[in-house]
Here is the input.
Amino acid sequence: MAGHSKWANIQHRKGRQDAKRGKIFTRLIKEITVAARLGGGDPAANPRLRLAVDKAYDNNMPKDNVERAIKRGSGDLDGVDYLEIRYEGYGIGGAAVMVDCMTDNRTRTVADVRHAFTKYGGNLGTDGSVAFLFRHCGQMVFAPGTDENRLMEAAIEAGAEDIATNDDGSMEVITGPNDFSAAKRALEKAGFKPELAEVTMKPTAEIVLAGDDAARMQKLLDALEAVDDVQDVFTTAVLDT
Here is the structure.
């Protein structure tokens, strides 16, 4: 990780997420609806739904919106039947990219995703072409200066699978995807509030891009994020800006 700051990348990512808040409600409503359809409308018995509801409340979504989305997914209200699709491809410098979508029109979505890849120097790949480069997990990142020993003790107690200290002093706690919500609550109860907390596809290896390559990769990621049907974009690229 020499030559760039993990913490700087986390802060940059948070800033970009904040700038896209107008789209977050739409994406969360889709996720809640699909989670309720697949696993039932009781968050206590449906880990995916519980995670989506927690995220909605973390983003200040009104309770009425959450409950309506659950009812649509459960079939108590009419709603759109969304299909989950994952696209895989390559960006600048061979960096891997995974794009998770929810759509009611597969033809439209694949055309929009392919256009973004092609226009900004990437290539849409085949199913499975890059998925092996990512790990599905819960990730929490804590600011430099966090008490390392206390956090490690609390994280182990909370059932974390892995704990790492980065070169810049920030710390990461990794959990299983279904254990994430409980571990996050346990760490917050112990006094540790993560700067970034999410269930994600974490790259198992990273490619550092700098200068023009980093700028080009950011344009590609922005174009993919701007597609209406896109829920999440994951990449092995680390942008040294």
Remarks:
- The beta strands are 83-90, 96-103, 123-124, 134-142, 162-165, 171-175, 196-203, 207-210, 230-235, 237-240.
